[in-house]
Amino acid sequence: MASDPAGALLLDVETTGLSRYYDSITLVGWEHRGYYHAHVAGDDPGPLRRALREASALVTFNGKLFDVPFLRQEFPELEMPPVHVDLRFAARRLGLTGGQKAIETELAAATRDGVDGDGAAAVILWHRYLAGDVSALRDLIAYNRADVRGMAVILDHLITSWGLRNSLFSESISFASRFKGSVGIAENGAELPLPGRLGRQAQTYGGLFEGGPSVAEIIVGIDLTGSQTRPSGLATLIGATVTTKTLASDDEIVDYVVGAKADLVSIDSPLSLPRGRASPFDDDPTRAEFGIMRSCERELKRRGINVYPSLLPSMQKLTARGIALAERIRRLGIPVIESYPGAAQDILGIPRKGAGPEWLVAGLAAFGLKGKPLTEKVTHDELDAITSALVGTFFLAGRFEALTGCGENALIVPLLKPGKRPLVVGVSGRIAAGKTTLARELEALGFSYTRFSQVVDDEIRAGGRVPDRISRQEAGMRLHETMGQRWLCERVLERVGDANLVVVDGLRWIEDATFFHERLGPDFVHVHVDAALEARQARFESDGTGRTLAEADAQPVENEIEALGDLASTRIVNESGVGEFQQAIRTVVGHVLGTGARGCQSQSS
User: Fold this and answer.
1) Nearest in space to 361 (alpha carbons), one of 475, 198, 244, 190
2) Which pLDDT score is estimated for 283?
């Protein structure tokens, strides 16, 4: 660089966000030998490649941690200059800390020329451009060019402060004053490329969900606070239209959810403890062994998304409240998922509220949401509740990823390009209604078979007993009360591994249905088998104890069977002959497999 200062290339990258796992480059701007150039995503990278290959040095601000890793990810064939000067770390040696704009302010740099905004604004500009506002691209270029010129001022200051201008460089040079202009699309009068030419399409609500089943569902998003004395934000999303409000107590929130006839509730709060933890608080004796962070939080950090550990001291009361509130709502038969608005916003390229509520509102509106909360002032908690509700739409549309670890509740994040997931059919019904016949028929059609009683039988045999109807009911009730129904559901799924088609025989509790809804979204289909008492009585086989069907039906483990029937998406009546029942089963299976008719089933469906 010292022998050829004019060959130094000052570069700045704009992206859709901070995570290399989810985000991509939108614009690369650079100044080389006095001229500013801009590469827009989708363009031929040839000019950028040649400029980097010919440069004597690369100058960036935080480029070692941000710009260069993004460049190498998207253009692995790039040849980088032999020298890289990262101004962020070089400036620290002179006591200049903070972001680039903070340092520019301290140096009284006049390089912005009326260009406002920050990285969050740059993301919004890109989304506006993809949505058809071509002028937003010119604003994005102006923003990037100001960043590059600001780096030149900082570089000049460093050279002068270190006394290098005459002693090290072969010629006196001022990087800030060598700008001669811009070339290509960066020129003020140049024609800008249309979004369609770039082969990019903005991700919008209409483009992702229009015509799908999720637009008809009622989703309540909750941005929960750690105390019932502080209002939480709530958002109800029906289609793309959202309404919001704030409520304080859990009773108020539950009443609101029921009154809204919610098909799904999405809560911004940890809804489980790290595996092995017995309590969310620091006096938990397992804290030292199992820590404060769950698998989903570790995964998000690995992907470059900032997230707080669920049992950080400031998060403990929130986690305890979230778990308790979710359990209350689930007992009503309404599925509850855990969401994290910050992660969802990063994935969708929408600025977080930390960048300014106005940018979050603009991002939600650009995505295609509508309603008074996006035109009138609401709290930042309500804005995050909107994002939580939006995660619910992705979930019900099957466009989601469930980040989880063994024994931990899944954290749901949006998936813009959904992959193939297993289809699970859950079967419920009264004793002798025919649910096992249905499940075995599905097994004959290629489904992997699993049932709750298999897990219960393992527990009975481990205790040295032989499984029968009475011991299964007793052991099932004991496991329900001690280990929890969600633990049983996990064990049931483990029995089929990675099977693509699964039938689960023997759903008995409302929590069974909500668990599978929350884990699988639209890929869970709940079928309930009905049969009249007379027909069931004719099929009922004595278990050798002399117990009647009425006595078997009256056991506590059977208490929620009727309520489960109300939650099912499909009910089959089994009162005719075997042939008619088999035909009804095949009709249901053909409908599910042939049309992909997988929808949310809930109390209000």
Assistant:
1) 244
2) 95
Short-list 393, 343, 351, CA closest to 369: 393
Structure confidence at residue 542 (pLDDT): 58
The helix/strand/coil state of 90 is: helix
Task: Please provide the distance, in angstroms rounded to a whole number, between the alpha carbons at the two ends of the chain.
Answer: 68
- Rounded Cα distance between 396 and 212, Å, is 9
Model pLDDT, residue 555: 86
φ, ψ of residue 39 in degrees (nearest 5): -110, 120
Tokens coding 101: 């704009």
| Size of the chain in residues | 605
Kindly state the DSSP code that residue 138 receives in the 8-state scheme.
Answer: H
H or E element in which residue 449 lies: strand 448-451
The identity of residue 325, as a single letter, is L
Burial of 308 (0-12, 13-18, 19+ CB in 10 A): middle
Residue 189 has what pLDDT? 66
Query: By percentage, how much of the chain surpasses pLDDT 90?
Result: 52
User: Residues near 10 by Cβ (< 8 Å), separated by ≥ 6?
Assistant: 30, 31, 32, 59, 60, 148, 151, 152, 155, 175
d(CA 330, CA 262): 12
Which residues are CB-neighbours of 34 under 8 A, at least 6 positions away? 6, 178, 179, 180, 181
pLDDT of residue 582: 79
Rounded to 5°, angle at Cα 101 from 95 and 103: 20
The amino acid at 422: P
- For the chain, which ranges sit under pLDDT 70? 1-3, 114, 116-118, 163-172, 188-189, 198-202, 542-545, 594-605
DSSP 370: B
